[in-house]
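ok so for the tutorial part 2 we go from a plain amino acid sequence to predicted C-alpha cells. step 1 is just haveing the sequence, like this:
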Amino acid sequence: MTSPHYQQSIDTCFDAKIGAGGISAAAFDARLAGAEEALVWLREAYDTGSLPLLRVPERRDDIPALKDVADGLMKDTSDLFLFGIGGSSLGAQALAQLTGWGTPAHTVPEGSPRIHLVDNLDAGTMDALLANCDLRTTRFLVVSKSGGTVEPAMQMLAAMSAIEKAGGGKYMKHHFAVLTEPAKDGRPNALRALAEANGFPALEHDPGVGGRFAVLTNVGLTPAYLFGLDVEAIREGASSVLKPILDGAAAGDVAPAQGAALSLAFAEEKRANMSVFLAYADRMERFLAWHVQLWAESLGKQGKGTTPIRALGPVDQHSQLQLWLGGPKDKLFNVFTTDTRGAGPAIAPEIAKGTAFEALSGHTVGDLVDAEQRATFDTLVNNGLPVRGFHVPVLDERALGALLMHFMLETMIAGHMMGIDTFDQPAVEEGKILARNYLADGKG
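step 2 — the prediction. this is what the C-alpha cells look like for a chain of 444 residues:
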C-alpha cells in the first residue's frame, strides 16, 4: 500500500508467499470486512465531531498560541525542561528525534538552549538535572492532560522548590508554562489551579483527545516547534493518511486498515501474539517507543491484545535476530527501512586495502546499513516468517506525521474490530490510586 510519504508492503505476510508461517488470503479478507465497519465508524465520527482527533490534522487555528508560549519559554534561556509522562512526552520525543535529539549525534545549535525531555521519574536523575543547570536561566513546560498526574507534578514542584531555595521565588512566573485541560464547570484542575495561582502561562489540552493520541495537538507540536520543526508539515503528513478514509476508500486500499486486519488475523489464525517493530534509523527509536504505549495501553484489555516489541537495526540483529529465527514462531514482524545507500562517511580505498575489510573499500556507512536492512528482511522471509514492510524514502516532518497518523488509525480500527474501548486505561488508573495511597500512609 502506497502513501505520499511511506510505502507499506504486506505480500510477505501470506502463506502463498512464505508458506505455513503466513496467513491465508481468506483469513485476511474476513478481517478486512470488520475493518470496513470500522472505517464507516471513523467517517461518522469525523462528520459528527465525536472523535476530535480526526479534525486535528486540518487545524491551524491553535498554532499561533503554542508558538507564543514557546517563544516566551525560549527567551534568554539556557536550559528548557519538558515534564510529562507517557502520552504527554513520548510523541514529543518521537518528533524531537527528527533533529537528532536522543541519538549519539545530537548537538545543541549555538545560541539555542539545551532542551531536556524528562519523562521517567527518577530521584538521581532529577538531582543531577537540577544541579547541572543555571536555575536563573532555566525554563519548564509541564504537560498533563488531567492536571492530576503525580509524576510531572512531582517534577514541577521539585523544580519550583529548587528555584525558591536558590532565591528566585519572586521570579517564579517567568520560569514555567503548563499545558493541561481547561477548567470544567468553572473549576480548574490541580495543575491549572497551581498555574493560575503563580501566573504561569497556560495552553489548553484538548479534552476530547486522550494523551497517547495527542501527538498531533499542541502536546506534540509545542515541543516540535521548540526544536525548530515545521509543525504545519507534520499535520499535512497526517492529513495525507486520513484523506483516503474520509474519501470513502475501501479497507483493502487503506494502509492502517490493512495493518489492523493483519494483526488480528495473525493473532487468531497463528497465535502470533507479539509484533516486532524494527526500524533501521536512530531517529525512529522514540517513534517506536511511542507506538508501544499507543498499542499496548489502547488494546490490552479484557484478556485481548498483542504485545508490541521495539527493536533498532542494525544493533538488534546482534541481540534478538537469533531468537526471531530460532525461537517460537509467535511473532509478526514490521520492518522500517529508509533510503540510506550512499549516505554517511565513505571508506577510503587506501585505508581498507590489504586488510580483512577490503570489501568495504569505497562504500559508505549507509551502504552497509542498506545491505543489512535488506538482508534482515529477506532472511526473515526466507525462514517463513511474516514481515510487513514500511519504506520511508525521506524521514522528515511530513513522513513522521503520516506514520503517527497511520498507527493511531490502525489502533482505533483494531480496537473497534475487537469490540473494546480503545481510549480508556482502567488497569493504569488502579496503579495510580494505589501509589497515592502508599505515599499518603507512609509506605511510599
